[in-house]
Design brief:
The chain starts with a helix and ends in a 9-residue tail after the last helix. It has a single domain, classed as Muramoyl-pentapeptide Carboxypeptidase, domain 2, CATH 3.30.1380. The protein is an alpha+beta fold and about 270 residues long. The strands form two sheets. A four-stranded antiparallel β-sheet has the order 3-4-6-5. The protein binds zinc ion. Zinc ion binds next to strand 4 and strand 6. The site of zinc ion (ZN) has 8 residues, from strand 4 and strand 6. GO terms for molecular function: peptidase activity. InterPro entries: DD-CPase-like, VanY-like_core_dom, VanY/YodJ_core_dom, Zn_M74/Hedgehog-like. Keywords: Signal. This is D-alanyl-D-alanine carboxypeptidase-like core domain-containing protein.
């Protein structure tokens, strides 16, 4: 398993062209597992926020523009001061290229859901999400979950050695800057079209459409959408789910604010260098 993961997560010999995939928030080595993925960066092929004809009666995920600051007047349906946006132990911690985890090598307590490590507070909703999809006949797979600091160091330095720092920053998060280190983020995959895992075409799979329509109902946000790239600093990843709890996820869905940066007024965008 370790050897497999290393092969999956570390740069392989034939992946240079795949750097265009911009898998910055996720398992960077996934590109090496999907060598067909030579797509242009930043294009709108990701369908992360598309509406979906789900089989359970939940509201579709937001397809509204991010970058517009919320829905206008009206009181939030959730107390946005209930948890810290900077404490690494908070369910609402915001981690991006401008705001690393502090301490940078923070390690959360973890438990397992279907064999993958996540934080205990996210585990029940993740299990419920996967069970609900199964009940709808949609079989999501888990492809990546918690990834600790030492692993991220290994992954990032592997890319630097192969591509140089500039290109490494395009395909891999620097240690301390990956949401996966919080234990609150997972990458889901498609059982019907596994070739679309970690690829923009995931959004077009039956599993991707289900997730777009139902993630918020289980407390998850599709963190990186085609519309919020400038705010998050990451290209669209329709497979990367971040748990924030059901109240906040519903609030974000209902208000059309797709980023935690905007919700909590935390700086985003690219690395400050
Ligand atoms: Zn991810």
């Amino acid at each position: 398993m370790t050897a497999f993961l290393d092969r999956l997560l570390l740069p392989g010999p034939a992946v240079v062209l795949a750097t265009t995939l911009l898998l910055t928030g996720c398992a960077p080595g996934a590109v090496s597992a999907t060598p067909q993925g030579q797509r242009s960066p930043g294009s709108a092929e990701g369908r992360a926020a598309g509406s979906v004809a789900g089989t359970t009666p939940e509201a579709p995920a937001s397809a509204k523009k991010s970058g517009t600051k919320g829905p206008g007047p009206g009181k939030p349906s959730v107390d946005l001061t209930a948890h810290s946006a900077t404490d690494p132990a908070s369910p609402w911690v915001v981690v991006n290229k401008r705001s690393p985890l502090a301490p940078v090598d923070y390690e959360p307590e973890l438990t397992t859901v279907r064999g993958y490590l996540v934080r205990p507070d996210a585990a029940p909703d993740l299990a419920a999400l996967l069970d609900a999809a199964d009940a709808d006949g949609v079989h999501l797979t888990l492809r990546s979950a918690s990834r600790g600091y030492p692993k991220q160091v290994q992954v990032y330095e592997g890319w630097v050695a192969q591509l140089g720092a500039t290109e490494a920053d395009v395909v891999s998060a620097r240690p301390g800057h990956s949401e996966h280190q919080t234990g609150l983020a997972v990458d889901v995959g498609s059982s019907t079209r596994p070739e679309c895992d970690f690829d923009p075409c995931f959004g077009d799979t039956v599993e991707g459409r289900w997730v777009a329509g139902h993630a918020a109902g289980f407390g998850f946000v599709i963190r990186y959408t085609p519309d919020n790239r400038a705010v998050t600093g990451y290209a669209a990843e329709s497979w990367h789910l971040r748990w924030v709890g059901r109240d906040l996820a519903a609030h974000m869905r209902d208000t059309g604010v797709s980023t935690l940066e905007e919700v909590f007024d935390v700086p985003g965008g690219g690395y400050a260098r």
